[in-house]
Structures are given as structure tokens and as C-alpha cells.
Write a structure and sequence with these properties.
This is Alpha-2-HS-glycoprotein. This protein has 338 residues and is of the alpha+beta class. It contains 4 helices and 8 strands. 17% of the residues lie in helices and 28% in strands. The strands form 2 sheets. The protein has a 4-stranded antiparallel beta sheet with strand order 1-2-3-4. Strands 5-6-7-8 form a 4-stranded antiparallel beta sheet.
Length: 338
């Protein structure tokens, strides 16, 4: 009898250990344009823009696919593939994304391609992992839309650097206050008809006075890197400014002081014809999330997306006629497709 009881206990113990521990395999596949799916995708885009160190904000263009997995102990994980488009708002610009314009095809648009795991828990969405890359539209496609439109130029092109230096010198010459130093070259396009370069770049104020600068190397940035000023008590915000073409502007705080950083551009500056070196022409999204995201659950378990086993059921006859579409994906295109 004691042996029998011992065998029963061992059997129960083995049975307990055979139960898989971790996320329950099985998923649901909502529509790509389902409101809940779009909420998850917008949370992903918000994550992109909060972690971009350079360049311009991106906006949602299309949801390509979605699967939703249950997650222990609570919540669900949205496995998303989305496409984004570059906007005209720099990452330093406090303008809400909804108010940012999308770069048109004729402006040599840039598209992002992203994979996300987004957790929905207690009605809130948060990103667990992110993987993105981005690429400009091809020169051939731009030429089809606009044969004479300027194309993106490598950011390290000597003509681009020359144009930025000339534009920044002219910008500082107009200022009676702080001397501004270059933070980054954000975008550049070669203008074929006028043999010039259109540039957009970010600058930051230094502790030097513009009219008194002798050696710019001795000037120190007022901030370690460009930052956005906090909202003022009266609700006004001071921050970077995107200026109109061919002009430069300065963001002022309510007290009348210049903001720590701003974006200047685009500025068109004549440049000598020189062959461009091979360098990137935009800030690739693939470099935006290095070491930022993790895929960990609240209990410390890693979340692994698995595949639901499909069991054949030969006894169930296949339905006659066309099979109805259960999951309409990819979703709608919000702007245009590259």
C-alpha cells in the first residue's frame, strides 16, 4: 500500500511538471484597421518619436499585420508590423504629431518599416520591443513624380557641409544675442536647376555673444545637448522652431529669452559642383532603439511568440463557394505608399 501511495504521488508530481509554464499558445487576429489595433500602432509610433535621437518624427501610414497573444499573468501582446512616413517636424520640435506635415513624394519621402510587441494591460498600451529600419524613396520614383525635383544628398557631402557652414554664419550674423553652434545636419537636397543645396540643420545656443565671437571653439553649449524647454505656468511653450523656406527664425520664451535649441531650414545655399561621397542621406530608424527595449513580463518571464499548432480535421467538409475574408490585412494607407 505504501508503494502504491508513493507511485501515485510521483505520478501527480510528473503530471504537474508536464504542464507548460509561460505564455499560453494561441492567438487572435483582429483586423488591421480595428480601433484597438490602431491604438496599439499609435503607441508604437509614439515610442519611435520619443526615442529618435536625430532627424524627423515619423507618422503611421499603414498597419501591415497584427496578431494578439495572451500573456501571463494578465494582459495581451500585440505583434505588429507597421509602415511609417517621415514628417517635416524635427525630433526637437514640440509640435504635436497630428499637426505635422508628411514629406511629399516630390520632397523625396522616407519610409519606415517596423516590428513591434505592444503590451495591453488594464486598458493601457506600452511597448515591449521594437525593431525598425527606414529608407528613402528611390530616385527613379521621385523623378516619375517630378523630373526636376531635388533628391536627398548624403549628410556628409562636402557641398552639404559647405552650405550648412555658410547658412549658419549668415544666421549668426543676424543675431544680437547668443552665438549658435551646429548640433546636427538633419536633411539635405541637391537642387539641380539652380546648382544649390537645400539644407535643414539643428543648432543650439552657447555662452558666447554672436557679435563678439573670435574663436567659436571656445564657446560652450548652454545645454549638454539640445533639450526642449518645459511648459510655462501660463500654458505657453518655448521650443525649437521650424522656419519657412529661405528664412531663419528664433523661438522665444515668454520672458523674451532665446530657447536653448532650434531647427533652421530649409536654407538654399549655392555650392560648387563636386561629386558626393557615399554616405547615408537620412538617419535610419534601425539605430534609434539600441539597448532601449526589452521583452520581459511582470513576473520576469520572457515573452516568446509561438505558433499555434494547426490540427487537421478530415471529418469536417470544406465549405462550398468563396471563403469569406476573416482578417482584412494589410490595413488602409493613410497617406501614400512608397
Amino acid at each position: 500500500m505504501k508503494c502504491l501511495i508513493l507511485l501515485l504521488c510521483l505520478a501527480q508530481l510528473c503530471g504537474c511538471r508536464s504542464v507548460p509554464y509561460g505564455p499560453i499558445l494561441g492567438n487572435r487576429e483582429p483586423a488591421c484597421d480595428d480601433p484597438e489595433t490602431e491604438q496599439a500602432a499609435l503607441a508604437a509610433v509614439d515610442y519611435i518619436n520619443k526615442h529618435l535621437p536625430h532627424g524627423f518624427k515619423h507618422i503611421l501610414n499603414q498597419i501591415d499585420s497584427v496578431k494578439v497573444w495572451p500573456r501571463r499573468p494578465t494582459g495581451e501582446v500585440f505583434d505588429l508590423e507597421i509602415d511609417t512616413l517621415e514628417t517635416t517636424c524635427h525630433v526637437l520640435d514640440p509640435t504635436p504629431l497630428a499637426n505635422c506635415s508628411v514629406r511629399h513624394l516630390k520632397e523625396h519621402a522616407v519610409e519606415g518599416d517596423c516590428d513591434f510587441h505592444v503590451l495591453k494591460q488594464d486598458g493601457e498600451f506600452s511597448v515591449l520591443s521594437a525593431k525598425c529600419d527606414s529608407s528613402p524613396d528611390s530616385a527613379e520614383d521621385v523623378r516619375k513624380v517630378c523630373p526636376d525635383c531635388p533628391l536627398l544628398a548624403p549628410l556628409n557631402d562636402s557641398r552639404v557641409v559647405h552650405a550648412v557652414e555658410a547658412a549658419l554664419a549668415a544666421f549668426n550674423a543676424q543675431k544680437n544675442g547668443s552665438y549658435f553652434q551646429l548640433v546636427e545636419i538633419s536633411r539635405a537636397q541637391l537642387v539641380p536647376l539652380s546648382a544649390s543645396v537645400s539644407v535643414e540643420f539643428a543648432v543650439a545656443a552657447t555662452d558666447c555673444v554672436a557679435k563678439e565671437v573670435v574663436d567659436p571653439a571656445k564657446c560652450n553649449l548652454l545645454a549638454e545637448k539640445p533639450v526642449l524647454p518645459q511648459p510655462q505656468p501660463d500654458g505657453a511653450e518655448a521650443g525649437p522652431l521650424i522656419t519657412a523656406p529661405g528664412s531663419a527664425g528664433l523661438a522665444l520664451s515668454p520672458a523674451g529669452q532665446p530657447a536653448a535649441s532650434l531647427v533652421v531650414g530649409p536654407r538654399a545655399v549655392a555650392a560648387p559642383p563636386m561629386p558626393p561621397p557615399v554616405y547615408p542621406a537620412h538617419y535610419d530608424l534601425r539605430h534609434a532603439f539600441s539597448g532601449v527595449a526589452s521583452v520581459e513580463s511582470a513576473s520576469g518571464e520572457a515573452f516568446h511568440v509561438g505558433k499555434t499548432p494547426k490540427v487537421a480535421q478530415p471529418s469536417i467538409p470544406a465549405p462550398e463557394g468563396p471563403v469569406p475574408v476573416v482578417r482584412p490585412c494589410p490595413g488602409r494607407i493613410r497617406h501614400f505608399k512608397i
